[in-house]
Amino acid sequence: MPERFEVYRYEIVRPGVAPEARYTFAPMKGVGYAGNDEPSEAHPMGNEPAEAGQAAPAGHVEAPEGSRIASFEPPILEIPGRGRVDLDAVIGTTGGKAAELGRLVRWHPAG
Asked: For residue 91, is pLDDT > 90?
Protein backbone atom coordinates (compact mmCIF):
# COMPACT_ATOMS: atom_id res chain seq x y z
CA MET A 1 0.00 0.00 0.00
CA PRO A 2 1.61 3.31 -1.03
CA GLU A 3 1.99 6.27 1.31
CA ARG A 4 -0.01 9.38 0.36
CA PHE A 5 1.23 12.93 0.98
CA GLU A 6 -0.89 16.04 0.41
CA VAL A 7 0.89 18.87 -1.43
CA TYR A 8 -0.03 22.56 -1.16
CA ARG A 9 0.74 25.51 -3.43
CA TYR A 10 1.18 29.17 -2.56
CA GLU A 11 2.59 32.21 -4.32
CA ILE A 12 5.29 34.69 -3.43
CA VAL A 13 4.42 38.16 -4.67
CA ARG A 14 7.05 40.87 -5.01
CA PRO A 15 6.55 44.34 -6.49
CA GLY A 16 7.27 44.52 -10.22
CA VAL A 17 7.81 40.77 -10.67
CA ALA A 18 5.45 37.97 -11.73
CA PRO A 19 4.21 35.83 -8.81
CA GLU A 20 6.35 32.80 -8.04
CA ALA A 21 4.64 29.49 -7.24
CA ARG A 22 5.99 27.44 -4.34
CA TYR A 23 5.00 23.97 -3.14
CA THR A 24 5.02 22.60 0.38
CA PHE A 25 3.69 19.78 2.54
CA ALA A 26 2.47 22.33 5.13
CA PRO A 27 -1.14 23.57 4.77
CA MET A 28 -0.39 27.03 6.15
CA LYS A 29 0.62 30.45 4.93
CA GLY A 30 3.96 30.46 3.12
CA VAL A 31 7.06 31.34 5.08
CA GLY A 32 8.29 34.15 2.85
CA TYR A 33 10.61 34.51 -0.07
CA ALA A 34 13.59 32.60 1.27
CA GLY A 35 11.63 29.55 2.40
CA ASN A 36 13.37 26.43 1.21
CA ASP A 37 14.82 25.72 4.65
CA GLU A 38 17.30 28.62 4.52
CA PRO A 39 17.41 31.91 6.43
CA SER A 40 16.16 34.89 4.41
CA GLU A 41 19.61 36.53 4.59
CA ALA A 42 21.01 33.55 2.65
CA HIS A 43 18.85 34.28 -0.40
CA PRO A 44 19.85 37.11 -2.78
CA MET A 45 16.28 38.47 -2.65
CA GLY A 46 15.78 37.70 1.03
CA ASN A 47 15.69 41.34 2.10
CA GLU A 48 13.35 42.52 -0.65
CA PRO A 49 9.68 43.10 0.21
CA ALA A 50 7.58 40.02 -0.53
CA GLU A 51 4.20 38.67 0.45
CA ALA A 52 3.62 34.94 0.84
CA GLY A 53 0.08 33.82 0.10
CA GLN A 54 -2.05 31.23 1.85
CA ALA A 55 -1.35 27.63 0.82
CA ALA A 56 -4.12 25.83 -1.09
CA PRO A 57 -4.40 22.13 -2.00
CA ALA A 58 -2.46 21.37 -5.18
CA GLY A 59 -2.81 17.58 -5.20
CA HIS A 60 -1.03 14.64 -3.66
CA VAL A 61 1.84 12.28 -4.29
CA GLU A 62 1.96 8.55 -3.73
CA ALA A 63 5.26 7.01 -2.70
CA PRO A 64 6.39 3.55 -1.56
CA GLU A 65 5.41 2.36 1.90
CA GLY A 66 7.78 3.64 4.57
CA SER A 67 8.46 6.96 2.78
CA ARG A 68 8.54 10.01 5.02
CA ILE A 69 8.79 13.77 4.76
CA ALA A 70 12.41 14.94 4.92
CA SER A 71 11.65 18.64 4.25
CA PHE A 72 8.37 20.56 4.16
CA GLU A 73 9.73 23.24 1.84
CA PRO A 74 10.97 22.45 -0.65
CA PRO A 75 8.87 19.28 -0.53
CA ILE A 76 11.37 16.42 -0.18
CA LEU A 77 10.57 12.80 0.61
CA GLU A 78 12.92 10.20 2.03
CA ILE A 79 12.15 6.99 0.10
CA PRO A 80 13.41 3.67 1.47
CA GLY A 81 16.21 2.31 -0.71
CA ARG A 82 16.19 5.44 -2.89
CA GLY A 83 17.15 8.33 -0.63
CA ARG A 84 15.83 11.87 -0.79
CA VAL A 85 13.62 12.93 -3.68
CA ASP A 86 12.82 16.60 -4.35
CA LEU A 87 9.20 16.68 -5.45
CA ASP A 88 9.61 19.88 -7.46
CA ALA A 89 10.99 17.72 -10.29
CA VAL A 90 8.17 15.16 -9.89
CA ILE A 91 5.50 17.89 -9.92
CA GLY A 92 7.18 19.52 -12.92
CA THR A 93 7.87 22.94 -11.41
CA THR A 94 11.60 22.86 -12.17
CA GLY A 95 13.78 21.88 -15.08
CA GLY A 96 14.75 18.68 -13.27
CA LYS A 97 13.88 15.29 -14.68
CA ALA A 98 12.09 12.63 -12.67
CA ALA A 99 11.11 10.10 -15.35
CA GLU A 100 13.03 7.30 -13.58
CA LEU A 101 10.81 7.82 -10.52
CA GLY A 102 7.58 7.31 -12.49
CA ARG A 103 6.75 3.97 -10.92
CA LEU A 104 7.95 4.96 -7.43
CA VAL A 105 6.44 8.43 -6.96
CA ARG A 106 3.20 9.44 -8.64
CA TRP A 107 1.87 13.02 -8.77
CA HIS A 108 -1.92 13.47 -8.76
CA PRO A 109 -2.80 17.14 -9.31
CA ALA A 110 -5.97 18.47 -7.68
CA GLY A 111 -8.83 19.17 -9.92
From this structure: no
